Structures are given as C-alpha cells and as structure tokens.
Amino acid sequence: STATVVWNTIRALRSAAGHFFALDLLTAHPEFLVADQHDKPILVNGCSPTDELAYSHFTAGMKRRVGEHTKPATPLLERHIKWIDDLVERQYTAATTSRPRRKACRIAITNLLGWLAWLRAQETFCLKWKDVSAIPPAEGPTLGLPEGLGVVLLKLLAQTKSSQSRTADVVVSYTTASGFSLGRWLDRLRTEIG
Predict the structure, then answer these.
(1) pTM of the predicted model, to two decimals?
(2) Which residues pair with 173 in a beta bridge?
C-alpha cells in the first residue's frame, strides 16, 4: 500500500519520541535536566533542584490531577487533639500487655508533638531518646523552674536547622494548662520499653 502518512500521525510519533528521550535523559541525568522556555529538555550544570525537569513534571502532574483551585487544609483544633488523646488514654488503660500500651504511647506522643511542638514529619519520626529530655514537675525547681512546672526538651536533627552550627532546642511544657501531658506519655513509653 502506498498510503501517505498524515500530519497527525507524524505529530503523535514526534510527541512520543520527545517524551521517550526526555524520560531517558531524566533517568540518566536527573540533577542536570531542565526545560527551556519552549518546554524542551536541556542539560545544564549547577541546576537548582526546583528547576529540575522531574520537579517541573511533578508539579504539572499534580496541578492536572488536583487542579488549581484546591480547598485549603482544615486545621486541627484542640478538640480534635483532645479526642485522640482521650482515645489513646482509654486504649492504654485497657491494655493488658506491653505491646498495645507502647503503641498507645507512640500515637499519643506523635499527636502531641505535632500539636504542641509543631514538628515536621522528619523531626517527629527521627527523634531518638538521646534527643529528648523530660523534666517532671517535681524536679522543675531544682533546675530553676517555678514550683509545679516541668518541661520536655527536644533537640532537633542538624539537617532540619537553618543554621547547622547552632543547637536548636524546642521546649514544651511537661503538662499544658489544658491538660495535655507529653511528658507523661514519654515517661510511660520509657517505662514500657524498659
């Protein structure tokens, strides 16, 4: 057959080839690949991570999937945090073995760290025991704190700080005025771990 190739077929083939070669370059050189003003992939040295083609494709894909008129996030309110805290308190109290008590403690600690300390995910989930100091209210005056006041001191990871040479501690009340007690949950978990 001597059928001629129509323009739309060539355009589709050219588009498919362009996507293939962009993906091939993206796989081989992700840190050097950007899109120029005509959306063509080019390799550059010293490319900013937010200018990389992978990031551009990611944000464009999210825009197509989610849309540009997304609904803003609904903030968690104190009543939500209290509901979770009360729920895990009941689970902790009802547990007959150490494993569900440890799980309840971890849920409560995560809940309260996010609410009281405003920690990001990496800061929350990468904390080690050496990064956490809990000073109960009974010991507060020995460290210059007012009577009946305790604190939880958190040392952040170096990579989460804007200045890596400084020590950035987050100080949270052992027990807040509204009754949330990050310190009590930390002490409980430390006891369950042994």
Answers:
(1) 0.60
(2) 151
Cα separation, 179 vs 128, in Å, equals: 25
Q: Token pair of 61, please?
A: 């894909």
Residues of the chain with pLDDT under 70: 1-7, 47-52, 55, 57-58, 61, 64-73, 157-168
Please write down the HEC assignment for all residues of the chain: CCCCCCHHHHHHHHHHHHHHHHHHHHHHCCCCEEECCCCCEEECCCCCHHHCHHHHHHHHHHHHHHCCCCCCCCCCCHHHHHHHHHHHHHHHHHCCCHHHHHHHHHHHHHHHHHHHHCCCHHHHHCCCHHHEEEECHHHHHHHCCCCCCCEEEEECCHHHCCCCCCCCEEEEECCCCCCCCHHHHHHHHHHHHC
Dihedrals φ, ψ of 146, to 5°? Answer: -65, 155
Question: Locate tokens 């120029």: which residue?
Answer: 36
Angle at 56 between CA 66 and CA 58, to 5 degrees: 40
pLDDT per residue over 11-63, tens digit each?
778 778 877 777 777 777 777 777 777 777 777 777 666 666 776 766 776 77
DSSP lists the bridge partners of residue 154 as 132, 170
